[in-house]
Amino acid sequence: MTNRIAFQGEPGAYSHEACRNARPNMEALPCRTFEDTIEAVRAGEADLAMLPVENSTYGRVADIHSLLPKSGLHIIEEAFVRVHINLLGLPGTKVTDIQHAMSHTVLLGQCKSFLQKHGIHRITGADTAGSARHVSQAADRSLAALASPLAGEIYGLNLLAEHIEDNSNNTTRFLIMSPESDTSRRGADGMITTFVFQVRNIPAALYKAMGGFATNGVNMTKLESYMVDGSFTATQFYADIEGHPDDPNVELALDELNYFTTNVEILGVYPADPGRK
User: Active-site residue numbers?
Assistant: First the structure.
């Protein structure tokens, strides 16, 4: 055991914050890409991976859904992180000193009101934590970063303004991945089952496959589609449902799903996080 949890991004990224919140006793291992994050676990360099799957404002995280089935890893937990955006500057600076703010383009778009109010121009950076690191290394007192409180802590920046995002409910959902599955019943808020499947090439196959969940009273909280290997004719679906595969109603629904689909694969059975509420 390495006692490490891998994440994509630089130290201070929101994924790093998710690692610290969910696994405070584990060392967070930064990785360049999502593929590198998964490979770190497969290679034994980390025990777990923290992967963002969707954001309440911007929807699903690109590429994640197609990476998960091929990863060889299993979802054992979910975690929710409120995306609090802060204006971070060099020690001794004030908001009135700032003329430019640097961050990932997504975060820049989430703070339009604040930046316009204070006449601050936007500069696109590679990512949030990298922008904070750049500001800490620059000798420019007119430049600030938009990033997490953790990034300010790591790079020695002052908090000039906090929670400046336009959308106060902006939240990112993460999945904690492990080489070993855990289907035990745990948690106080019920269980979530995540799976992928392809429908058979028959009329109304998707409608019929989904019918089993409706007739058996199983709540499907997510259903998304994406192309397989760039093909316009091969579509894979990613789904989250409430319940455990051993629940009688879930078992019946999955049996009906199998009849109308191919390649059904359960990616994880894990406790619902209280952050869902």
Answer: 172, 174
